[in-house]
Structures are given as C-alpha cells and as structure tokens.
C-alpha cells in the first residue's frame, strides 16, 4: 500500500471505510486522486474470524451510545461495526434493491418526504455495485422480472424452507432473496481468490472465505491498487476550517498521538450516528439546523416459532427466503410497506434478542432458550418516516477522548406502530399455518438512518442530492445519514450506489 507523509495535503480524506466510504475511495483513487481513508477500527485478517459469537465482538462498534425515546434502540453489534471495511465486515449480506415507490412516498401518500431524485437515476449505480461485488439471486425475481443476478442462490436453510411452506399456505409469493455472496469461486481483481460460499452460516461473525461481498474484499483492494492509503486505528475528532469556513484538514487520534492531516476535499462516511456527532461536535455544516435530525431505523419486527423437529437455526446462510408482496398491502392502514425475510440465527444473538424483546424471565426464559434448536424466525424490514422528535444530539457524558457521547432519541410514530401491528398479525398467521408453537413477537428496530439528509433546499437539508454540503463546498457526506426516508430495503446496496454517485459528482467539479 502506498503511504503519504502527513505533511502532504491529500486530494481527498475519507472518514470511515464502510459501505459509504469504500466505493468512493476506489472511484476517486481510480481517477488519480491522492486518497487517504481514516478508519477508527483495526485491520482484520479474515483467517482469524471465528464462528464463535463472543470472539467476533472485535468487529462491533461498542463505544457507548445513550439511548432514549419511547422505543429506545439497543446499540452495539446489532447495528454497527468497526474496522477496515466498516459494518459490512459483519453484516448479513441480504441485498434487495430499494422499491422505486419508497423514494417518492410523499407524492404517493402525502406522508414522509420524497427523495430528491428518481429511482431511474440510481439504477445504473445499483447495477454497477451488484456486478462489481458479486450478488446471488434467483433467475426470475417475481417483483422485478427485468433483473438478473450473476450467481445462483446458496442452499436454503430450515427457516427459509419453512417460510416457503408458510407463504404457499397463505397464497403469498416468495423467492430466494438477493444475497451479497458468491456461490462460485472468483478471482477478485486486486484481492485474489474468493471461495464459493460454504453455507457455514457465520456471516455475522465475518466471512473467512471472502465469499461474502464486503468492502474489504472488493472496493478497498481496488482503492489501494490505485494508490489510496488506508490508515487503521485512526479516530478523527477534529475537523479544521479556514477563515472562509472551508475545510482544511482533520486531526485524528492514533496510538496515543494526535495527528493532523490536511486535505482539499473531506468525505464523511462514519455512519449515521458518528457523522452527525462529528459535525455537531465541530459545529459545522448546520445552517439548516438539520444535522442530527430525522433519525430513522427500519421497523424490524420478528416473529419466532417453535417446531416439532430440529431446525438448527445456526446452520446455513441465515436469511434466504424473501417476499415483497407486503410492499403495498391492500389492507394497509399505513403509508409504505415492508419486506419479509426468513431468519436463522446464532445462539447468543438469539438468546439476547429473546431476553431483550420479551418479558420472559427465570424458568420461563430458560424454557424458551432451551427450544433454540427447534426455532425459526420471520422478520420484516419496514419503511420508516422521518419524525422531528427522533434525533442524535451530543450528551453531557464524554468518551475517552473527551468528546461528548451521542444521545439518540427514537420513538415509533403512528405509521410505524400501524406497520408493526400489521406485520405482527401476518407473521403470526404465517407461522400458525405451518404448525409453529409458542409463537413470540419481538418488537425490534434495525439500522441507523438519517441525521444529515439530502434535499434540494439548503434550509431543510444538510447536503445536496449528490451529497455535497450546502454550507461547505469541500465537505461531502457518503453514508447512511443522507437518506431522506428509510425505504424498506436493507440499505447496504443503496449506500454503496449513492457513494459512487457522489464520487462522480466530485469528479465533475
Ligand atoms: C449485524 C448487522 C447486520 C446487517 N445486515 C445487513 C444486511 O443483511 N443487508 C444490508 O443491506 N445491510 C445490513 N446491515 C446494515 C449495513 O451494514 C449498514 O447500513 C451499512 O454498512 C452502513 O454503512 P455506513 O457507511 O453508513 O457505515 P459503516 O459501515 O458503519 O461505516 C462507518 C465506519 O466509520 C468508522 N468511524 C466512525 N467514526 C469514526 C471516526 N470518528 N474516525 C474514523 N473512523 C470512524 C467506523 O469504525 C466504521 O468502520 C447490517 C448491519 C449490522 C450491524
Ligand atoms: S455463509 Fe457463506 S458468505 Fe456467510 S460466512 Fe459462511 S461462507 Fe461466508
């Protein structure tokens, strides 16, 4: 890897090396820019990944975040990662495309906000991401016959098979979901051999084979091959500006030392909570008053049932079967819709979820946990509408570097509550249709979205539709924070597509 002296001004500094930061790093480096990526987490060697959940904690962002609101979100490995590659190191790799209608929900329903451009503009970037990283999927995708996937799906695990049966029983269409993994070995340019998925089921603990398509085996090797430098264990805390308010560089903490790195352009890709926190802490790019505002999640209601036979939910790729039939349910009393996915899960993750999501305690909890091997889950990802009460602010508590910890307030509004109720009823019926017993509904929110939204007007958005700050032209944001509304789809594909789109806008200027 090429290295740059810290005395040299980089063309582009990118904070964060995940779904938002890695594609833009590759694109800018390919265009000949001197790119430096500053990543708070360490560099991992995939050979050391272990399917043991306790051992995988090193991949999680575990710095304390304070949580409030009527539906306070749990933070940790369930929604954020760290390390060279960001949260993609331990994400689940479920990779549906966003529904075009979700990007224009305000026009459709009068609720939420529209995205500042149409799906058609995003589509070429979605296709480019899928082709470059490697995505598996069915030959025929029932909700979008124009689509094709380069790799065949992995084998279905027992939860996926059960969901197929239950959908058939209720007349709901289903398919193998798009998954960001490869089922045939490939030679990935600048990375090397990526093995075919072995269906081991340990995606959330890091993929040892390079089969899961993440930033560390795709975009980042491409970036490095074109001269980008990735500095791991480098926590940015200060963003410096000149008298005109332009960014001049950043200061980051690395192994006990503060280091200054100057740059011409700065890209913030630290994820929706840390990006907002950095901007608020440095008092930047907030003439709209929207930094930290409009925090969203995905409604991720899960329904688990117990079956008569052993299902072994730890085995096989965790979430394969999908239905998009509920993207606009006919009997909906809410705007938008949700995807349904089958769920397998590792035991400790499952146990924590059950303990957190139910009131079962003592012997009742022990009895439930003992049913692990016969359990299967269904889960949704539902669209979420921005709400003025949901936000990230700086708290009065400070972290080890003396920076205020973030306080995140999260409450479901009437639309989210109605969607949760609809999904709870339907998912329960699906499991009842195939004889599940001891059915449990877990109220759960996933992902961290919003806080620096894009839009067309400087008084209501933080960045332009291309991710450029309205206030500071040499500041760009490329991560989950720029989404104006959540959209129902799992987000990584859209974040990566937007990252390439932002890179192209930067290169045009
Ligand atoms: C357990 C889990 C399962 C998931 N499953 C799926 C799935 O199946 N499909 C899907 O589409 N999405 C999934 N997601 C969500 C998806 O992974 C994230 O939405 C996406 O990766 C977020 O990208 P990002 O660029 O916004 O942030 P991240 O990928 O989180 O990147 C932010 C990076 O910035 C670094 N950073 C933060 N602050 C600083 C700082 N001050 N200085 C330097 N570096 C900093 C962090 O260490 C991190 O590496 C999952 C997420 C998790 C946690
Ligand atoms: S199931 Fe496949 S993609 Fe997931 S960790 Fe195992 S080999 Fe990697």
UniProtKB/TrEMBL annotation:
Residues 187-217 form the 4Fe-4S ferredoxin-type domain. Keywords: FAD, Flavoprotein, Oxidoreductase. The keyword Oxidoreductase applies. InterPro entries: 4Fe4S_Fe-S-bd, FAD-dep_OxRdtase_2_FAD-bd, FAD/NAD-bd_sf, GMC_OxRdtase_N, GMC_OxRtase_C. PROSITE patterns: 4FE4S_FER_2. Signal peptide: none annotated. This is GMC family oxidoreductase.
